[in-house]
Write a structure and sequence with these properties.
5-stranded parallel sheet; 355 residues; Rossmann fold; mainly alpha
Length: 355
């Protein structure tokens, strides 16, 4: 009798768990970046085949095209940029990369644009969501997930950690927003190596504002919380023998942005980190950025602009960090296959550049 009750109890728990997880998968919010899918794709790459990883905000996500870097220089790169990123998110992503023993990138390029902002999960609903998607993307059976949640809670005491572990408890009211796409697995776009490629052009001109660079704008004061996590990132990379660089990408320069860039240059100089400011007038000219056709909005390059920036940046990174050119190596045929599929789907843009 007891044995039957135990069997029924275990069966009930298994069925309940299965149903709960299925409903949770349907109900959870589907972030546009699909970071969990990009993490999975990264982990599925051939062992020690990824040389460069890009981590940062939406500028990283939109402006870095790994497929172009492959075709231009034979660099094997992954883009793990996150919209509305923050210092803790970049830190958590680095911790994720260090947990993936299958890969050991030679170089990680970060975007540290929150240097002057105290952005935490508790700052606003928008920033809470960005922290959630970074934590939710980590597999639930990883110890790292719980370590990061405890660290998050320390600086954000109002956050409910249970809802980070079980998103259904957070998104249970999404019934009215459910779409057919919530029931379907995401389209396999692993060939993009994590990057976004949007062929959309702003209906206004984006200006470099070269005059602002000589106007004596003071650097923004580094925020103790964000700068503290950026320093942790630098230390972790060095402890694990990973080269580190910091970059920001072409955009409409404003006094606020230039104050951030000035602070970044100082931070990188003080911490011995290579810094690339691709939004200076000189880099706009060298890359060939055109404010009438290369942006999707004031802060993000479109497909054409991203091709220009990615191939120029790839050449610079390869020279500065002695990155290998894997083109023609049979061990990396899958990267050429990814390029071929990427080209097939984006021929209208890529053919303009002679590819």
């Amino acid at each position: 009798m007891i044995r039957k009750l135990l069997i029924k109890g275990v069966a009930f728990l298994l069925i309940f768990t299965l149903v709960f997880l299925c409903v949770q998968e349907v109900m959870r919010y589907k972030y546009n970046e699909r970071l969990a899918d990009r993490y999975r794709a990264y982990m599925n790459e051939k062992e020690n085949s990824v040389d460069v990883v890009f981590i940062g905000s939406s500028s990283t996500y939109c402006d870095v095209v790994p497929d172009v870097m492959w075709k231009e220089c034979g660099i094997t790169a992954y883009n793990l940029g996150v919209v509305t990123s923050a210092a803790f998110i970049s830190y958590s992503q680095l911790r994720f990369l260090l947990e993936v023993k299958k890969q050991k990138p030679k170089l990680i390029v970060f975007g540290f644009t929150r240097i002057g902002s105290n952005v935490r999960a508790s700052t606003s609903a928008k920033h809470e969501n960005s922290h959630r998607k970074a934590i939710e993307a980590i597999p639930p059976w990883w110890k790292l997930k719980y370590e990061l949640l405890l660290e998050l809670k320390k600086d954000n005491p109002g956050q409910n950690l249970i809802t980070y572990l079980f998103p259904l408890l957070r998104y249970h009211s999404r019934w009215n927003d459910i779409k057919k796409s919530d029931f379907r697995p995401a389209e396999n776009d692993d060939y993009t190596k994590g990057g976004l490629f949007r062929n959309v052009t702003a209906d206004y001109v984006v200006d470099c504002h070269a005059d602002l660079f000589d106007s004596g704008i003071e650097p923004v004061k580094p925020d103790e919380y964000s700068a503290g996590y950026y320093k942790k990132i630098v230390e972790l990379c060095r402890e694990n023998d990973i080269e580190i660089a910091v970059a920001n990408y072409p955009k409409e320069n404003t006094e606020e942005w230039i104050a951030i860039f000035e602070a970044l240059e100082i931070f990188c100089s003080e911490n011995g980190v290579q810094y690339y400011d691709l939004s200076t007038p000189e880099n706009w000219a060298e890359i060939g950025i055109d404010g009438t056709s290369d942006f999707m909005d004031y802060d993000h390059l479109n497909a054409r602009g991203a091709v220009k920036a990615s191939r120029a940046f790839a050449r610079r990174l390869q020279e500065d960090f002695d990155l290998p050119d894997h083109r023609g190596d049979a061990e990396y045929d899958s990267w050429e296959e990814a390029w071929n599929l990427f080209y097939e789907k984006n021929t209208d843009v890529l053919a303009e550049f002679g590819y």
